[in-house]
Design a protein that fits this description.
This protein is of the alpha+beta class and 186 residues long. The chain has one domain. 24% of the residues lie in helices and 32% in strands. It has 3 helices and 12 strands. It is elongated and about 80 Å long. The protein starts with a strand and ends with a strand.
Length: 186
C-alpha cells in the first residue's frame, strides 16, 4: 500500500474510506481497480478537491443532482464533467465514517449474517459496511438515475453548419445604446 499526500478521483477510483493516522488525524483509504492508497486527506476533502479539479464544486454538484432528482438527502453527485463519474456517500457527509462509492464500479451487494452489508466491486474487491440492503440499494438506484438523466440531457448533441444565404452584420446603435442587425452591403 502506497502513501500519498493528496488525491484526485479518476475513472479507476472505486471507493474512498476513512482511516485515522497514528496521530489521530482523519485520512483516507482510496480503493482503485488495481491498488489501494493511504491518503493524508479525509474522504470529504478528496471529493471536494476532485470536484474543483474537474471545474465544479461539491456544493454545485449536489445542487445539480437535486435539480434533477428532487429534494433528497445524501444526494449522489456527478464529478468530472466530461468524465461523468457518479458518486454517492454511504451516509451523511457530516459523519467521519462516511464512505464514498463510485456507482459504476459496484457489481453487487448482500446482507451478511452479522447485519452488515458486503459491497462487491467488479474486480471482486469487497467492503463490509454498516448499512441495510434497502438503504444502500436506494443510494445506488439514485446514482444510476442521476446518470441516466444526465446522459439523456447531454447525450444527444447535434452538430451542424449553418451558412446563411444573406450576410448580416451586428452593429451597436449608439443613439439607443443597444445592438441591431443590419444587412451587409455587397
Amino acid at each position: 500500500m502506497q502513501e500519498m499526500y493528496d488525491y484526485v478521483i479518476h475513472k479507476e477510483t472505486m471507493g474512498i474510506l476513512n482511516r485515522y493516522d497514528e496521530y489521530g488525524n482523519l485520512c483516507s483509504l482510496v480503493v482503485e481497480e488495481k491498488d489501494i492508497y493511504e491518503v493524508n486527506e479525509s474522504p470529504l476533502v478528496i471529493v471536494k478537491k476532485s470536484a474543483l479539479f474537474y471545474g465544479s464544486s461539491l456544493e454545485g454538484a449536489i445542487t445539480g443532482a437535486r435539480a434533477a432528482l428532487g429534494k433528497i438527502s445524501m444526494s449522489p453527485v456527478m464529478i468530472g464533467g466530461i468524465e461523468r463519474m457518479y458518486w454517492f456517500p454511504s451516509k451523511s457527509t457530516e459523519h467521519e465514517d462516511c464512505i464514498w462509492f463510485s456507482a459504476e464500479h459496484i457489481k453487487d451487494y448482500r446482507t451478511l449474517d452479522d447485519g452488515t452489508l458486503e459491497v462487491r466491486f467488479h474486480n471482486d474487491y469487497s467492503i463490509n459496511i454498516a448499512s441495510t440492503y434497502y438503504r444502500f440499494d436506494q443510494k445506488v438506484g439514485r446514482a444510476n438515475k442521476l446518470k441516466n438523466i444526465m446522459e439523456r440531457r447531454t447525450g444527444s448533441k447535434r452538430m451542424f453548419l449553418y451558412i446563411p444565404e444573406k450576410q448580416f452584420i451586428i452593429i451597436k446603435d449608439g443613439g439607443r445604446n443597444h445592438y441591431k442587425i443590419q444587412k451587409r452591403r455587397k
